[in-house]
Amino acid sequence: MKELKVRKRDILGSKTRKLRSDGLIPAELYGHGIENIHLSVPIDAFSKVYKEAGTHSIVTVDVEGDKRNALVNGVQIDPVSQEVLSIDFHQIRMDEKVRAHIPLEFEGEPPAVEAGGVLVKSMDEIEVEALPADLPHSVVVDLSGLTEFDQSIYVKDLPKSGKFEFTMEPDNAVVSVSAPREEEKEEAPEGEISPEDVVVEGEEKRPEKEGEKSGEEEKHDKNETKT
Question: For residue range 144-173, what is the model confidence (pLDDT) as tens digits?
Fold first, then answer.
């Protein structure tokens, strides 16, 4: 179990910006039947613990010597700087079941994909309910059974355990293989283009008006006049 040493804080509201400049993150610890506690958490220590525990493993939050078992229930991150802005810890009891989102671990090579299909993942984590000590680190999804196009693996197909239960609908698709898209064929041009239809640059065709003679006719008339 990972341990994280934190301190109580009196700084609230917009003043918490100074905490971040000092390498600390404002946090809250709450739970059923306990008083909410305002905390400051060292950014480096939290980053290390969160990378390993995520939101599905128990963390021992050491509040100035008072150790509490908790789950990381939420992390607010700045979308531009990716800086951690705040943390929510949910204190838990080891004898009460909790719900947590567990990452899915995809394994195996699906034959349908090797045949040209496209793998479509509908989710990358799944919610389970269990006693805190029984929460799995991940749930394995075996892809080797996907042998045909338009075949899916559903929640009901995931490996069962007597220690935890899936809270999602059993008929929810986890991952599927879709058939490959057919490439659009280029349409052949209708009919062939004759050389007469090609307009050379600078030699556009000029429509003849009624009664207007062509250049060859004018040349013939001039020869007759000379004779």
Answer: 999 999 999 999 999 999 999 999 999 999
Residue 210, phi-psi category: left (phi > 0), alpha (psi -120 to 50), beta (remainder): beta
Torsion angle defined by CA atoms of residues 168, 170, 175 and 176, in that order, rounded to the nearest 10 degrees: -150
* 125-130 vs 98-107, strand pairing mode: antiparallel
Residues 108 and 159: their CA atoms lie apart, in Å, by: 15
DSSP secondary structure code for residue 138 in this structure? -
- The residue with tokens 């991940």 is 138
Q: Which helix (H) or strand (E) holds 1?
A: none
Which of 193, 158, 194 lies closest to 175 in space, CA to CA? Answer: 158
List domains and CATH numbers for the chain. Answer: 2-92 (2.40.240.10), 99-178 (2.170.120.20)
Q: Single out the residue of 139, 4, 133 nearest to residue 61, CA to CA.
A: 4
Q: Over the stretch 165-179, which tens digit does the pLDDT of each residue have? A: 999 999 999 999 999
What span, in angstroms and rounded, lies between the C-alpha atoms of 128 and 162? 12
Angle, CA of 173, 174 and 178, to the nearest 5°: 75
Structure tokens belonging to residue 22: 């000092």
H-helix or E-strand containing 113?
Answer: helix 111-114
